[in-house]
Structures are given as C-alpha cells and as structure tokens.
Amino acid sequence: GGGGAAGQSGNAGPPAPERVLFPPTFSVSEIKNKQRRHFMFLRWKQQQRKEKLAAKKKRRKEREALGDKAPPKAVPKTIENQRVYDETTVDPNDEEVAFDEATDEFAPYFNRQTVPKILITTSDRPRGRTVRFCEQLATVIPNSHVYYRRGLALKRIIPQCIARDFTDLIVINEDRKIPNGLVLSHLPDGPTAHFRMSSVRLRKEIKRKGKEPTEHVPEVILNNFTTRLGHSIGRMFASLFPHDPQFIGRQVATFHNQRDYIFFRFHRYIFKSEKKVGIQELGPRFTLKLRSLQKGTFDSKFGEYEWIHKRREMDTSRRKFHL
Questions:
Q1: The Brix domain covers which part of the protein (predicted)?
Q2: How far apart are CA 220 and CA 206, in angstroms?
Q3: What angle do CA 124, 130, 136 make, to 5 degrees?
Q4: What 3-state DSSP class applies to 305?
Q5: What is the enclosing helix (H) or strand (E) of 269?
Q6: 8 A C-beta contact, residue 169 and residue 185
Q7: pTM of the model
Q8: Is the peptide bond before 92 cis (omega within 30 degrees of 0)?
Q9: What confidence tens digit (pLDDT) does each residue in 276-310 have?
Q10: Per-residue pLDDT tens for 148-166?
C-alpha cells in the first residue's frame, strides 16, 4: 500500500497552474525550508546587485551625455559627515585656545625646551605577545626605554621616572595574554589618559611589510582631532616624538581619529615620481578608544578626572563623537 487517498481519485480538482505566482507582499523569510530559503535569498541579492549596477551605468551614460552641464555628484551620507555638532570644536584662530596651549603642560615640549624621554612598561608579569609589542613600540618612538615591571606599583614607579628625567610613561596592560589597554601619563604634572586597546598587529603579522624601522626621528600626522578634548589627546601623542623629524628616514607615524577610534599606523614612504608615492607599512598597528582623561599623574583612587566615557549617558546618538 502506501499510495494514499490522493492517488486513488481520478479527477479530484482543477489542474495545477503552470507557474506559482507569489503574492506581492511575499517575503523570502516566509519560506520554511532552510536550503530553499537560502537559495531564494541569494537569488534576490543577485537581482538587487544587477539592478544597482544597471542604475549606475544609466547614470554614468547620462552624465557623459550632458558633459559639462552634468549636475555635481551627490555626496553619500556617512555617519561622519552627519556628525552632531559639538560646541567644543576648536576654531584654529581662537585666542582662548591659543592661550591655553601656550600655558598647558605640553608647552615646554612645543617651545622646544624639553626633549621627550619615554618609559614603556607593562602590567605585572607580561606574556610573550605584550613583551614583543613593547619592544616594537620602542623602535617606533625615539628615546624610549622598555622596563619590565615586576610587582612594583605605578605610584612608586612615577617618582623614580621623574627623578630620572622621563617626560612620559606608557603602560601596556593585557588580558588573557593579549594587550588590551594603554595608559599614557605625562610627567611630572600629568595629564594621564586611559585607552582601551584593540586590533593589535605585530610586525610579523602584517602582510607586505617593509624592513625594520631605522633610528631616524619619524614625522607625526594627527588626523581629525577637532574638539578641545581631541586637541588635548593629539598634543599628548605629538609630545611623545622629538620635535624635529628627519626627512631622510622618510618614516611617518599616523594617529587617525575616526568616530572616536584612534588608529595608529607606522609607514615608510618614497617619492617614485612627482605624482607617485610608494608606501610600506612597518608596523606595529593598533586601535585606541579613550576611556578617561585625568588631571595630574596616575591616581586611580583620588585622581581628579577631566573626562570619563560614560556610555549610557554619552552615547545617545550614533552620530555624536567626543574627539
């Protein structure tokens, strides 16, 4: 047996139509069979792509036909260019800002009265990856010295640093053998910035990397640090590097701020011709996100904070940025 009732009757109902037409409100997600649903979704995506390309071609032909009379290209909307206006955005000609910068903790560096000398240290008993990262960071920042901290409190390290004329202290913290935090403290009077660190790539993990960096003093590029807070952070990074870059070495360290994430890259460049420039990444690379800015040197218990990132209160809009 097993034919079932449907097979028994000769002409049970009207013949099935040739092609099933989906109702206009049909959604692929209504298909119950997972494989079929996936297949139909891919077909739908393909169709979308074809339509998009066809529309793009049509627009291009229209622009070519109009020639000089073609309307200007539309600027795509991005989170960045839709950014919510920040009232602390710095005007380059602002006298108040100029006065503040002439008298802040970094003024002696920018007036070339002090030369940066950096101490790079780690959290207690660092593992291999963090150790290698510190060593590579020391080759990027001139006049920096790596010191492995063994059970010594930061508050005890800071007076020793000041006594030995260090101008900045960098602490690399780790979690489960992965570098995950950076504390940057300007000596002797602060400020101190705490960053969350992510996406660390060591030199050997970078594809098509150049040879080891040389001893030359690199140039520094700071992008998009537009607010008062951004200016302070940018000045902190700038003061880690000697003020006179050596263009013979053609090395450049970039701190690029995008949506409050600070991307660090280290490159070597060469001018192949008047128009062409070749660049090679030397590494390491990492991403920072500011968590707090503290007045004075490191003091987690009694420190006075200028700015703390409070997600629930501050991140009310995806288009609001603080740097």
A1: 116-299
A2: 21
A3: 130
A4: strand
A5: strand 261-271
A6: yes
A7: 0.77
A8: no
A9: 998 999 979 999 999 999 887 777 766 778 888 88
A10: 887 788 888 889 999 999 9
By the 8 A CB rule, do 220 and 241 touch?
yes
**In whole angstroms, what is the distance from residue 59 CA to residue 75 CA?**
15
Residue count of the chain, please give it: 323
- Written out in words, the top-level CATH class of the domain with range 91-315 is alpha beta
> Which structure tokens are listed for 247?
């263009």
Pairing type for strands 192-201 and 285-294 reads antiparallel
Contact between 190 and 303 under an 8 Å Cβ cutoff? The reply is: no
Q: Where are the domains of the chain?
A: 28-60, 91-315
Contacts 24+ apart (CB under 8 A), 135-139: 136/202, 136/203, 136/283, 136/284, 137/170, 137/172, 137/284, 139/212, 139/213
> Residue 90 and residue 225: Cα distance in Å, rounded?
9
Give the DSSP H/E element, type plus range, for residue 144. Answer: strand 144-147
